[in-house]
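Sanity check record (used in CI):
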Amino acid sequence: MEKHCVIIGGSHAAAMLAASLRQEGWEGMISIVGADPTPPYHRPPLSKGALNGDKSDNDLLIRPAEFYEKNNIDLVLGCDVAKIDRNNKKVILHDGAEIAYTRLALTTGAKVRKIPIPGSGLEGVCYLRDLRDAHQIRKFIGSGKSAVVIGGGYIGLEAAASMRKMGMNVTVLEAQPRVLARVTSPEISAFYTRVHNEEGTQVLTDVSIEQIEGEKFVSGVRLANGRVLPADIVLIGVGVLPATELAEAAGLEVDNGIVVDEFARTSDHDIVAAGDCTRHYNPIYDTQLRLESVQNANDQAKVAAKTLCGKLEAYRALPWFWSDQYDLKLQIAGFSAGFDNVVLRGDATEGRSFAAFYFKGDKLLAVDAINRPKEFMLAKRFLAEGKTADPGRIVDESVDLNDIF
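Expected output for Pyridine nucleotide-disulfide oxidoreductase:
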């Protein structure tokens, strides 16, 4: 049988893995099988340019359709995979069609976490994970309309900023005492709350929702205290879960993600996995991580492609992320979980530019840089090299950045 790599999932990781396979010399067949009817596209703009109409569907494509044709990469789109038959090395689609493989790659990504709120089935109650979701949301948004965003994480805040910039009345509801509580420090949370308030977005924390109101279409959100917030659209953004169902059913090891080794191999070495769906060991932080980021999807996909081509190269990448809201460019270098001290360079209580350095003891873990590209780039480089920084010199902006590491 001719070599055939089947990639399940039309994600960032899928696009990078397919391209990298050709770059690494894979001469066999390559197929990308995805439930989405569109070729792999950029996901971050879904809460920004795709929401407000600045970006067309074609603008979002990671690579033009001609790229796949030129590189003999077969796109099997709009198809759900029902089962992986490892014994016979076949992928079985929902319509019963079968695709044989010699190597398999899982880039299934993540799915939205849904919450059982009464009224959540009304029209105008939306989630945002793919292009179809963005198209649906655009039916309900517009200047002068009211939006309620449930969830004060990055996706919720980005979407809130986009809708506010369109002239909508926007309220963000967060169950925790502060926005971004699961991912960042109180200083960053307070900063984003201030900026959203300055821009005219209402941010309510420590809230409990009783129900979403309306007949056929949503009309409002009733809180536990009896207050009703009018809404033409309710956007729910309360996180994602790794899409591991196929892997579990196939008997692969799964633990908050598809478990892979340093070469992106699953417990079946004929199957690799990359991206949001995976859980892997990160040697920089000496811990198991599951990351939801474009960086991880791309870097891990490159390693997976090398592995499939017989070029074992261990995955060792520093996690980094970003978020765009209003005129803010947040760039995060590293992974801050477990921090016990935060040192600020710049003022977080006024203006819109500063950096937060996260420490655990004497070790620098991560840096959140808001409109501070130089801090981000230096931190990214030095964290990857295992260097730390002098907390006492960080706060003194007269000290050159190169001298604080």
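The chain has three domains: 4-111+240-308, 125-236, 327-403. If this sentence no longer matches the regenerated tokens, the check is flagged for review.
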